[in-house]
Amino acid sequence: MTQRPWPQPHPHPIPISPISRLPPPLRLSPPMGEQTLSQPHLSTAAAQESPSATAAVTGTAKIPFRPRKIRKVSSEGDPQLDSSSSSAPTKKAANSRAPLLRVVPRPLSAEGEIDTALRHLRVADPHLASVIDAQEPPTFQCLHPPFHSLARSILYQQLAVKAAASIYARFLALCGGEAGVVPEAVLALTPYQLRQIGVSSRKSSYLHDLARKYHDGILSDAAIVGMDDRSLFAMLTMVKGIGAWSVHMFMIFSLHRPDVLPVSDLGVRKGVQMLYGLEDIPRPSQMEQLCERWRPYRSVGAWYMWRLLESRGTPTMASMGSGTGVAITGGGEGPGGGATPQQTQLIDPIQMLPNLG
Fold it and tell me: Where is the HhH-GPD domain (predicted)?
C-alpha cells in the first residue's frame, strides 16, 4: 500500500493578524438597508490581508443588506448639475423662473380702437350689428386721474345726483380744487371735516382707506394704469367700499378697458335679454357664456346694451358727454356684496355710477 505524503507547508505562509483573535465588540445592529463602513482604526493593509478581521471588528458579517435604490438625477433644469454649462442656467430652468407677462390691452380711447371694435362686433354678432347701426358710436374721455375718479365714485355712493353733486363740490373746496384731490390731501381731512360737508362716517373710512393704500405704495395711478384686468380687479377690491361692480364701471369709464363685462349690472342683463329675445333676465353666471362672442370688446357690447334699453323706452345711458346727467338703471352691490336693484338716478357715467361698493 502506497503511503500518501503529508501536505507540505505553503512556501509563503499567510500571516494571521492578532486582531482576528479578539472577540467582536458589542454593538447594535444597523437598520435594514443601512450600509456600515469599516472602522477607522482598522488599517487598509490589515483589511486586505484578513477580510475576516474586518468583519469581526464591524460585526456586520451576518447582517443582511438590502441594496438602496439610486435615483438618477438629471442635470436638466439645475445649473449646478449641468456639467456642460456650470455657470449659465439651462433654457428650461430659465423659462420656469421667468415671470408671466400680461399685456395690458389698448384703451378704447386710443385712435382707431373704437372702429376696430365695431368691425369685430358686427361680424361676431349679427344681432348686435343691427343695434350698432342704429346708434352713434361711443366716445370715451378721461377727465380725472385714477385716484380722483375712485374718490369721486365713493362720494356718489347711494345718493341721488343732486345731493352727490353738492357733496362733491364741497369736497373739492376742502381739497383746494380738482387738482388738489390727491392722497395726501384726503388723508389730511378729518372725519369731522368730512361729516360737515355731508360725508358719512363709513364713506370717510372708505376715502381714508383708499388714500392710505396710495400713501403706503400699495396702489398708485401709474400702477393702476399698467395693471392687467385680473390684477387690477384683485387690487381694487381690496379697498374698502369698492366692490366688483364698482371696479367694472371704473375700468370701462375711467380706464377705457375694452374687454370688461359687468355681469352684475341690471341694465346690461336686461339689454342682453332684449337682444336675444330671452324669456327671463339672464343671471350673472349666464352672462359670460352669452357674451363670449363679443371678446375682446365686451365693454363696447355692454355700452350698446345700455343704449338698447334707452331706445326701447327704458331709462339708461342717454349720453356719454362730459358733465351730462344721464339716467342709469343698474345693479349695485349692497353692504353684503350681492347685486341689488337700484332706482333710476341721474348721474354722469364717465365718473362712475351711484351705489358703488
Answer: 155-310
Let me know the angle formed at the C-alpha of 189 by 154 and 252, rounded to the nearest 5 degrees.
25
Q: How many CB atoms lie within 10 A of CB 26?
A: 6
Give the helix/strand (H/E) hosting 164. Answer: helix 161-175
**Range in 1-10, 105-114, 280-289, 309-318 with the lowest mean pLDDT:** 1-10
Q: Which three cell numbers stand for residue 205?
A: 373710512
Largest CA distance in the chain: 140
Is residue 1 one of the residues assigned to a domain? no
Task: Kindly report which listed range (29-33, 160-164, 232-236, 257-261) carries the lowest average pLDDT score.
Answer: 29-33
- What integer pLDDT is reported at residue 330 of this predicted model? 33
> Position 28: which residue type?
L
Helices (H), 84-160: 91-97, 113-124, 126-134, 146-155
pTM of the model: 0.64
Q: Is 97 within a domain?
A: no
Expressed as residue numbers, the domain containing 296 is 120-351
